[in-house]
Amino acid sequence: MNNLMKKTILEAKNLILSRAPYYKKYPPKLKIESIDKRAMISERFKFAYYRIPKAANSTVIATLHCCEYGEVADSLKMKELKTHTYIKPSQLNRKKADVLLDDYFKFTVVRNPYARFLSAYLNKIAKGKPGKKALVADYLNRSVDDP
Questions:
Q1: Burial class (CB in 10 A: 0-12, 13-18, 19+), 90
Q2: Residue ranges in 1-147 assigned as alpha helix (H)
């Protein structure tokens, strides 16, 4: 699939999701699909959790799952929990979206930005796939050998 086709599909998804009642309150240029897939809503405990990459997501999701269902999630179940177990904002009707915005506890977990940057660098570049270091060096207009 070429880049133009991918971009068109993503724009179509955003257009469809933007019509959901929950998202009508947000600016139209927002990348809704990326927000929708990271949201986890529990009607039972009245919370909405928004996952931020590389910020203790697995621990938070496993803890929420244990509280909600009374079972410990194994590593194979973690991906399913992130994508299928909880309600997404696009699935809410107008009334439920208003209740969520007014009455639910909404939270996310953030990390120290310096620790997050260092972790990402060490994980993705220093120990990552060959070529990542060259890609970053090229972006910074530097040689791969520069400190």
A1: buried
A2: 3-18, 32-36, 57-69, 75-80, 94-103, 113-120, 132-139
The distance of Cα 96 from the centroid of its chain, to the nearest Å, equals 21
At residue 40, the 3 state secondary structure works out as strand
Amino acid at 80: E
The mean of the pLDDT values for the chain is 79
Q: How far is CA 44 from CA 38, 47, 48, 124, in A?
A: 19, 8, 11, 37
> Facing residues of 49 across strands?
40, 107
Q: In terms of residues, how long is the chain?
A: 147
The answer to whether the beta carbons of residues 17 and 32 sit under 8 Å apart is: yes
For 78-128, how does the pLDDT look when each residue is reduced to its tens digit (9 = 90+)? 767 666 678 888 898 889 988 988 999 999 998 888 888 888 778 777 776
Contact criterion met (CB below 8 Å) for 61 and 41: no
